[in-house]
Design a protein that fits this description.
It contains 9 helices and 34 strands. With 431 residues, the protein is α/β, with parallel strands linked by helices. It binds uridine-diphosphate-N-acetylglucosamine and calcium ion.
Length: 431
């Protein structure tokens, strides 16, 4: 049986009070629309058609390749949005899965179950529903005495009796495409919002004695919609739980999950420990046996090799931290590559931005960067090199392997009595 997919993403999301389209907002760093697209793609439909309108160019960019876009210039409701795809599906007689761009957590398995029931029952339309303790804000599913769905009533249009119904419409449906488009013109906008509701297809079809089925989700979290910033925060919590659980199952210790934020794109090796109040965002790969936090901020394009240690108030961006290297207190490391077993003293700052562009810092293996060192990029500090506490290493003034530099601007240390200097210097700077 053929399958195609429509994703509704034209709405403004008034309740978000945002310049951006609602579906461009993110959960764990990933736009809502990408969650929906990922699950749609996993089902390998013939076509994915996305209805865009508000903030359309941005939404299209976020969606990327392999999607056909239809513009709904003015948003007259979900039924009107689907109507915009009628031409595209002219002559198509397969199934049509309709997904909402603002219902991001739906699982592939649930959609497969929806397809099975739909195909097994020969239904023209199968709804995905959920029973929620607090159904407010959602359309309610009203069933006939036979148990079959009879209609969906939006909260605004619902009677007190209907509002008491806890079974809600998820905004996800399967239709037989030809039958949907045969009757979609019958939708009217006679409701509180004066919109063409796709949900009215249920009463239209069931009124014509067509088979309408419903499948209930097992995990109601999957069908929670994002209409407000409050909903966004609620879903973020669920997503964080899922992400962190997956890391914990892989052998990562997260001491306080409620006070940890890890984005979807992060990889973490086993036996790494994450202390509280840590934020890890963007493309980040953390190796095995690392210690991160408390209060660490690790940003995109960063790799921490095994046994690296990052401590409190350390921010790292676009950097590679080598095996066993430690940056434990009060540092900013940006666009920096550090070798192995190097110590980054408290308060070390890489001055990577010269007001025009970002410049790179390279620090070798077994180096010792003294507390409060500022490294003005571009600059290289060699293997086994040492900077004194408070040193300012100017740009281009590379520190050779094994050298010791001190002061502002940093210059090679004059050694009074040969070998002792390094030892003394290290002794003073130990963190
Ligand atoms: C909708 C359903 C409701 C269901 C809920 C589930 C209708 C009338 N109501 O309500 O029964 O419980 O979803 O989350 O369908 N959109 C367009 N064009 C439009 C209007 C909306 O593309 O003209 C898109 C939105 O961008 C959004 C989706 O359709 O992604 C749902 O629209 P929204 O306004 O959020 O509907 P709800 O009020 O949540
Ligand atoms: Ca919604």
């Amino acid at each position: 049986m053929k399958l195609s997919c429509i994703i509704l993403a034209a709405g403004e999301g008034k309740r978000m009070k945002s310049e951006r389209a609602k579906v461009a907002h993110t959960l764990a760093g990933k736009p809502l629309i990408r969650y929906v697209l990922d699950v749609a793609r996993a089902l390998e439909p013939e076509k994915i058609v996305m209805v865009v309108g508000h903030d359309a160019e941005n939404v299209k960019t976020l969606a990327g390749e392999g999607v056909e876009f239809v513009t709904q210039a003015e948003q007259f409701g979900t039924g009107h949005a689907v109507l915009q795809t009628k031409q595209i599906f002219e002559g198509y007689d397969g199934d049509l899965l309709i997904l909402s761009g603002d219902v991001p957590l739906i699982a592939q398995e649930t959609l497969r179950r929806l397809m099975e029931t739909h195909r097994g029952s020969g239904a023209v339309c199968t709804l995905l529903t959920a029973v929620l303790k607090d159904p407010s804000g959602y359309g309610r599913v009203i069933r006939r005495v036979t148990g079959k769905p009879h209609k969906i009533v939006e909260e605004r249009d619902a009677s007190l009796f209907e509002k008491a119904v806890e079974e809600i419409n998820s905004g996800i449906y399967l239709f037989k495409a030809d039958q949907l488009f045969q009757v979609i013109d019958k939708l009217s906008a006679q409701n509180k919002q004066l919109e063409f509701y796709l949900t009215d297809m249920v009463s239209i079809l069931s009124g014509e004695a067509k088979i309408v089925e419903a499948v209930q989700v097992e995990d109601p979290n999957e069908v929670l919609g994002v209409n407000s910033r409050e909903d966004l925060a609620k879903l973020e919590r669920i997503v964080q739980q899922r992400i962190q659980r997956a890391h914990m199952l892989n052998g990562v210790t997260i001491i306080d999950p409620l006070n940890t934020y890890i984005e979807a794109s992060v990889q973490i090796g086993r036996d790494t420990i994450i202390y509280p109040f840590t934020v890890v965002e963007g493309e980040v790969r953390i190796g095995i046996n690392c210690r991160i936090g408390p209060f660490s901020h690790i940003r995109g394009n960063t790799v921490l090799e095994e046994k690296a240690e990052v401590g409190n108030f350390v921010e790292i961006k676009s950097s590679t931290i080598g095996r066993g290297t430690k940056a434990k207190h009060l540092s900013y490391l940006g666009d920096t590559t550090i070798g192995m077993e190097t110590n980054i003293g408290a308060g070390t700052i890489t001055a990577n931005y010269d007001g025009v562009k970002k410049n790179k810092t390279v620090i070798g293996d077994h180096a010792f960067i003294g507390s409060g060192t500022t490294l003005v990029a571009p600059v290289t500090v060699g293997n086994g090199a040492v900077t004194g506490a408070g040193a300012v290493v100017l740009k281009g003034r590379d520190v050779p392997d094994g050298a010791v530099v001190v002061g502002i601007p940093a210059v090679p240390l004059k050694r009074k009595k040969s070998s002792k200097a390094v030892g003394t210097e290290r002794g003073r700077m130990q963190s």
